[in-house]
Write a structure and sequence with these properties.
InterPro entries: AMPK_gamma/SDS23_families (IPR050511), CBS_dom (IPR000644), CBS_dom_sf (IPR046342). Keywords: CBS domain, Repeat. The structure is a single chain. This protein is an alpha/beta fold and about 350 residues long. The chain is about 35% helix and about 15% strand. The strands form four sheets. It has a three-stranded mixed sheet. A three-stranded mixed sheet has the order 4-5-6. A three-stranded mixed sheet has the order 7-8-9, with helices on one face. Helix 7 crosses helix 12, helix 7 packs across helix 13 and helix 9 packs across helix 11.
C-alpha cells in the first residue's frame, strides 16, 4: 500500500508549488560576460544565494548554468585556499568573466531544469540525488501537431498555456519544503519521524562526489571550528571536508554560530583581507549582527524541524545534545531525502 506522503508527491507538481509561491520580482539573472565580483555583489544586493547565467543568442537569453556561493568557494580553493593565509590568494579571478565559475561544482556543471508538469517525486529526486539546490523551470515540451486525438491535444495545449507564466522561474528546496508544510495534513505519519534518524540522510546519494569514508564521517561528526579561529579556517574546513557549512563552537563545544559559503557573497579584493579576522568578527561584518543558528534536539519531529526551517528562513538545523554541542547537521537535502525513503 502506497503511503500518504508518496501519493501526495506523485500527484502534485512543480506547477502546484509555483502557483502558491509569492513572486514579487522578475527572475534575477546575469550575463556570462559579467565579472565574478559582479555576480557575488548581485547575490548580496538581492539577498539571494544563486543566479542563472545566460549568453545572448539571436537577441534571446540562452541560459547555461546556475551559479551559487559554493562555486565561489570552489574557485577560492582553485586560487590557493589550501595555503595558510589569504594573503597568498590571487584575487585577479574576481575581475574575470563568470564563465570561469561554470562547472566548478556539480550543480553548475550543467543547467538543471524541470518542467511545470514534473511531479514532486521527480523534482525531489533532482534535488537530492544531484546535490542541486535550485532548478530553472522551463516550458513543457510542445504538443506534436500530427497526433491523432485533436481534442486531447487542445486540452493539453490549454494546460500548457496556463503553465507558461510559470516558466523562466527558479524553484528551490525551500519552496518545496514550504509547500509540503502548508499541506502537512495530507502527508501522514512521516512528519512524526524523529530528527536524530535523518541527520545526514541525503549523504547516501553522495557517491558521485564523496567517497564512502568521507560521507560516513560527515554523517557522524559535523564539521566545526572554535570561536578563536579565523574565517579563513572555516573556508579551509569546508573545502577539505566537502561540507556546505561549519559549526562555530565555544570552549565547551557549545554551538555559537555557523558559517557557510553564503557568507562569501559580496566578496571583493578589499574584503579578502577580512578573512584574516576572527570568524565571529567576520560574520558580524557580513551579517550586521551575529545570528543564532537554528538547532534542534533528537526528540524533535520532522514536522517541527520543517516548521523551524521555514519560519527562520534557514538552510539547515544543527542537531545538538543536552549541552548544546552539535552532534549532527540536518540540511534541506536531508529533509527532502526522507520523503523519498
Amino acid at each position: 500500500m502506497t503511503s500518504l506522503h508518496a501519493q501526495f508527491l506523485a500527484t502534485h507538481t512543480v506547477a502546484n508549488v509555483l502557483s502558491e509561491k509569492k513572486q514579487d520580482h522578475d527572475l534575477i539573472d546575469i550575463q556570462v560576460t559579467a565579472t565574478v565580483e559582479t555576480v557575488f555583489q548581485t547575490l548580496l544586493a538581492n539577498d539571494i544565494l544563486s543566479v542563472p547565467v545566460y549568453r545572448k543568442f539571436n537577441n534571446r537569453k540562452d541560459y547555461v548554468a546556475i551559479i551559487d556561493a559554493f562555486d565561489l568557494l570552489s574557485t577560492l580553493e582553485e586560487q590557493g585556499l589550501s595555503s595558510d593565509s589569504a594573503k597568498g590568494l590571487n584575487t585577479e579571478f574576481l575581475s574575470m568573466p563568470v564563465a570561469i565559475l561554470v562547472g566548478m561544482t556539480k550543480s553548475s556543471s550543467k543547467l538543471w531544469t524541470c518542467q511545470p508538469s514534473f511531479s514532486l517525486t521527480q523534482l525531489i529526486e533532482l534535488f537530492t540525488k544531484h546535490r542541486v539546490h535550485r532548478i530553472l523551470v522551463v516550458e513543457d515540451i510542445p504538443v506534436r501537431t500530427d497526433q491523432a486525438d485533436t481534442e486531447e491535444n487542445t486540452a493539453i495545449e490549454q494546460q500548457q498555456q496556463e503553465r507558461k507564466p510559470l516558466a523562466g522561474r527558479l524553484i528551490s528546496q525551500t519552496d518545496v519544503i514550504r509547500y509540503l508544510l502548508e499541506h502537512n495534513h495530507e502527508l501522514g505519519s512521516i512528519l512524526d519521524i524523529s530528527a536524530d534518524s535523518f541527520a545526514g540522510y541525503a549523504l547516501k546519494y553522495a557517491e558521485e562526489y564523496l567517497d564512502e569514508a568521507t560521507a560516513s564521517k560527515l554523517k557522524r561528526t559535523p564539521v566545526s571550528i572554535t570561536i578563536q579561529s579565523q574565517a579563513w579556517d572555516a573556508l579551509q574546513k569546508m573545502s577539505t571536508s566537502h561540507a556546505t557549512c561549519v559549526a562555530i563552537v565555544d570552549s565547551d563545544g557549545a554551538l555559537v554560530a555557523e558559517m557557510s559559503a553564503a557568507d562569501l557573497r559580496g566578496i571583493n579584493p578589499n574584503r579578502i583581507e577580512d578573512l584574516h579576522r576572527p570568524v565571529l568578527v567576520f560574520l558580524k561584518t557580513c551579517q550586521g549582527s551575529l545570528k543564532k543558528p537554528l538547532s534542534c534536539r533528537a526528540r524533535f519531529s520532522l514536522g517541527q524541524l520543517m516548521s523551524g526551517v521555514v519560519r527562520s528562513h534557514g538552510h539547515r538545523s544543527w542537531l545538538v545534545d543536552g549541552e548544546d554541542r552539535p552532534v549532527g547537521c540536518i540540511t534541506l537535502s536531508d529533509i527532502l531525502a526522507v520523503f523519498l525513503g
